[in-house]
Amino acid sequence: MSILVTGGAGFIGSNFVLDWLGCSDEAVINLDALTYAGNRENLVSLKGDSRHLFVKGDIGDFDLVARLLNEHSPRAVVNFAAESHVDRSIHGPEDFIQTNIVGTFRLLEAVRAYWSGLEGEGKGGFRFLHVSTDEVYGSLGLGDPAFSETHRYEPNSPYSASKAASDHLVRAYHHTYGLPVLTTNCSNNYGPYHFPEKLIPLVIHNALAGKPLPIYGDGQQIRDWLYVRDHCSAIRRVLESGRLGETYNVGGWNEKPNLDVVHTLCTILDEFSPRADGKPYREQITYVKDRPGHDRRYAIDATKIERELGWKPAETFETGIRKTVRWYLDNQAWVQNVTSGAYREWLGKQYGETK
To answer: For the segment 277-290, what is each residue's pLDDT rounded down to a tens digit?
Structure first.
């Protein structure tokens, strides 16, 4: 038996592949286009492991996906493949439309053709699990209840709009064609192998390099933080026992303003890797112009997945963030290898305007 994982060299996808093979002998066919955030180095520990087959390719390549499905006969497809950074979607939305909408459509078409040809237990047991985001629900006020699975879709960025469209396509393929789908909408992930353009790895990287720690606006944007390996365990549970056609919200029950997250990181770094001059890392905090349309608050109500499937996160924010900082300190070679000249150019463009 095997599963096909798309986007399995990215942040969440690679953590999922590593965790899957750490607790199962079921093979993984790993399809990733290796765009800027996809990194084969995330999977270096699997070198020589016959359970892991890596294929460089795009989910929008119908013929390639169809060939992989027909050759390997996976019992499930787990779709992580996506352009996923809001800031990049503001500067260049077309890539998000192509990957998240057109790519998901072509992937669904290839999977539908494969699934239609299955028979008996193979057809009945097949699953397509689509990994999405809480950002499709829009923004919450401070007193609003957290996002539930029935919350209205109100995406506010090209990224979240493209993910919302992909969610709707997955739903439509279930209701129109009977494709056995599952969807998960997660809150902000953090942990090992996170590309350092996102808040937590960016702050760790810049702090250690003696660079400014950029905070958008007043830093009071609230996010629900989910340790990536908790997310992976939730996906495994949904794949195992989720009800067909259903959506499951996955959150960490950890609402934190961005500024509080940065303060926590600075405190941990003061403990784990003090500055040579003895000063606190908080002195490097710099406020930058807020990004357009910045959502104020996200919060996930993860009651349904706990009630139906018995899943809840194992890590608190306090335990998960310490593990994350330690991982980055212990894996500086990985960080250096992904922070290329192109990445530094991007940071200058994105955070160059300070106040």
So the answer is: 999 999 999 999 98
